[in-house]
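The aim of this short unit is practical: by the end, you should be able to scan a pair of folded records and say something sensible about each. We start with the first protein, listed as its amino acid sequence and then its structure tokens.
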Amino acid sequence: MDGLSYEIVFQIVIQAVSITAVIVTVRCNQRFFEEKLTNLEKKQDKHNSLIERMAIVEQSCKSAHHRINENTARIDTLIEGHNESNTVKRAGNRSGFGED
């Protein structure tokens, strides 16, 4: 019986070492995955921040283009008004031109 009890004790020790090795491996893997997950979350946050900033930039760009279009229309109106006043002045000057 002594031989059998040593075998049982030996098997219990082997099982305990095996279980300990599995627990240590699982905890190491868990830490590794948690670290990788944390890094992935940081990258995702940066990406989300970039998307939010790009939306703001796009809105600002749209507003700037709208202001540019308004200013272009104003400039065109001023140029047309200036050209019309020059045309009227030229027409008035032509009637007296060359009557000497």
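Turning to the second protein, read its sequence before its tokens, just as you did above.
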Amino acid sequence: MTTIVVQNKPRRRSKIPAGLIYETLNGRPLYYKGYKEVLSGQRTPETIMGSSSLQAALVSVILGKLATLPDRGNYLLASNRVITRLDQNTSLVNAVAVFERKGLTLGDVCFQVPPKMTIDVDVQVDVRDFAAKEQSYVYEKTEKLLGFGVGQVIWITTQPRKVLVAGRDAHWITHNWDVPVTLLNGIDLNLAALVEEEGIQF
């Protein structure tokens, strides 16, 4: 009796569209949170790429606070998916980035100099491949930014309501929203008070 052996060809992994990449970190493409639902047809790209209404409102009130910097004219306040290219393997995105104007040249390419400060509101990438999920991603990205020369990195989370403050020459500390956080140049950010002042309800 003849035995017929059928060899199954290895299935090619479908290529993920480059448009679903949020940022690259140490040579690793990081995709938008929810990208797998887009690939399966359950969601559209637009539904995973934009900020939530709460996230957008928080960025707005933070920019308003930063506008009160005593030496405001020395800084450029950038927002709306700010991309900074750290090296050939890393291009990171921030919700808000504060750059020193001195020596800063603007053009049709992303920033390539370290911001004075970055602020992110919630994790926007799929973190299932990170050992400790969001924590591993946040720490790795923060360390990369600080190593590039960023003076202060701030993460704001809406669930739970926390603020992580990290600096090159300071301990990393996590606070509740109602604890004033000292930003570079000495102004205090009390997120809970700002939200109440603006009448933001959620």
